[in-house]
């Protein structure tokens, strides 16, 4: 479990608790929050642990013999011979190296990290084919598409339709967005997620990344991927087939459901969730087209995905920097897409990059975005 102390990581361990006879936790890794990681290691009797920013604390607990585990790198955990499934829930580019380590070791990868496929989708999917590794989607939208494809001929797919709740600002005017604060952006109406992904949902940058993920997960060209606004987050995504039929996956907005699906596939196990979907009480479901004037990040990311090469890595890196500055109250909400746009415009792309070139593009974009934001503050 990589990213065990984050939102998806903790919900993954909730699923594991439901099935103590089906799963054994070999390793836990987190970027921070060593005390929670220690609690998790004790509860699940993890053999290997890693905390990127505070391994010294855990090493002290191990030396005191109060914690029975061994320190390991995140790549060692991901590729350990006793591991069958690796859940990648780390945020940002930190998930790329361990995902590749797991894939090269032939593991099943339950992927909840968007940047892995956004930055290096071609490299990652190629490595998966070479090493016979399986990538299972954890995001609710991609899990929905995956489930709708079970038993279907992928060659008969006309369109993939990703649904978007619209985030905290779906009903706000452009004038409202100019004045929006970080506190406003973090009030997501449906999902409880980490700060960056919640802001990315408010800009629809998140949905743009999901179109790139879908392109690589399901080997579908961009002109067959669309985004549909759906505020209730009940239909998680749809597929249209060549005969005009639509197939959708519905469920309550609870990340534990797609997580469990990825862990237990091809079985469906009973789920202990607080509420189940009752369509008779829903009343109605609403749909609409995204407003690209209010949410320019969506078109920026989708265009980066269509252009390919190093463009998606640049978009993701610039956005991460801009969101950090927005959360720190240094820039306004509508300056996030401007930071992404200027970074993409200044970038000199590489069409078929190596992994090193992808990482170089990521570093370049972070530096460019930082400089652009600092220049605005002067």
Defining key terms:
378 residues, four-stranded mixed sheet, three-stranded parallel sheet, 10 strands, Rossmann fold, alpha/beta, 16 helices, Rna Polymerase Sigma Factor, Chain: A
3D architecture notes:
- This protein is α/β, with parallel strands linked by helices.
- The protein has 2 domains: 7-137, Rossmann fold (3-Layer(aba) Sandwich); 142-253 and 274-377, Orthogonal Bundle (Rna Polymerase Sigma Factor, Chain: A).
- It is 47% helix and 12% strand.
- The chain is built from 16 helices and 10 strands.
- The chain has a 4-stranded mixed β-sheet with strand order 8-7-9-10, covered by helices on one side.
- The longest helix is centred in the last third of the chain and has 23 residues, at 355-377.
SSE blueprint:
Layout: H1 7-18, E1 27-30, H2 34-44, E2 48-51, H3 55-63, E3 70-71, H4 74-78, E4 85-88, H5 96-104, E5 108-111, H6 114-131, E6 134-137, H7 140-149, E7 157-164, H8 174-178, H9 182-185, H10 195-203, H11 205-217, E8 225-229, E9 235-241, E10 246-250, H12 256-264, H13 296-307, H14 311-327, H15 335-346, H16 355-377
Parallel strand pairs: 1-2, 2-3, 4-5, 5-6, 7-8
Antiparallel strand pairs: 7-9, 9-10
């Amino acid at each position: 479990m990589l990213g065990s102390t984050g939102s998806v990581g903790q919900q993954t361990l909730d699923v594991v608790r439901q099935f103590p006879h089906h799963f054994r936790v070999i390793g836990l890794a987190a970027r921070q929050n060593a005390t929670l990681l220690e609690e998790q290691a004790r509860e699940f009797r993890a053999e290997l642990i890693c905390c990127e920013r505070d391994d010294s604390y855990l090493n002290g607990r191990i030396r005191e013999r109060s914690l029975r585990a061994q320190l390991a790198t995140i790549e060692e955990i991901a590729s350990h011979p006793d591991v069958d499934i690796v859940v990648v829930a780390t945020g940002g580019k930190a998930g790329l190296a361990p995902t590749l380590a797991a894939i090269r070791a032939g593991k099943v990868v339950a992927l909840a990290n968007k940047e892995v496929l956004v930055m290096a989708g071609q490299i990652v999917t190629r490595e998966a084919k070479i090493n016979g590794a399986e990538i299972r989607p954890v995001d609710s939208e991609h899990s929905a598409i995956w489930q709708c494809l079970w038993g279907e001929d992928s060659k008969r797919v006309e369109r993939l339709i990703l649904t978007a709740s619209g985030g905290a600002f779906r009903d706000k005017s452009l004038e409202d967005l100019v004045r929006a604060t970080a506190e406003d952006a973090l009030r997501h109406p449906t999902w409880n997620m980490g700060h960056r992904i919640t802001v990315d949902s408010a800009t629809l940058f998140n949905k743009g990344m999901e179109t790139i993920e879908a392109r690589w997960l399901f080997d579908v060209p961009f002109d067959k991927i669309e985004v549909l606004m759906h505020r209730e987050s009940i239909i998680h995504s749809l597929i249209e087939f060549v005969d005009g039929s639509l197939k959708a996956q519905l469920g309550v907005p609870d990340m534990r459901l797609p997580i469990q699906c990825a862990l237990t596939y091809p079985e469906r196990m009973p789920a202990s969730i607080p509420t189940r979907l009752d369509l008779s009480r829903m009343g109605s479901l609403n749909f609409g087209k995204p407003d690209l004037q209010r949410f320019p990040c969506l078109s920026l990311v989708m265009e980066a995905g269509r252009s390919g090469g190093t463009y998606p890595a640049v978009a993701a890196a610039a956005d991460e920097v801009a969101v950090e500055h927005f959360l720190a109250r240094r820039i306004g909400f509508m300056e996030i897409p401007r930071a992404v746009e200027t970074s993409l415009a200044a970038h000199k792309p590489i069409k078929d990059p190596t992994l090193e070139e992808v990482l170089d593009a990521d570093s370049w974009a972070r530096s460019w975005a930082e400089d652009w934001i600092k220049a605005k503050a002067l």
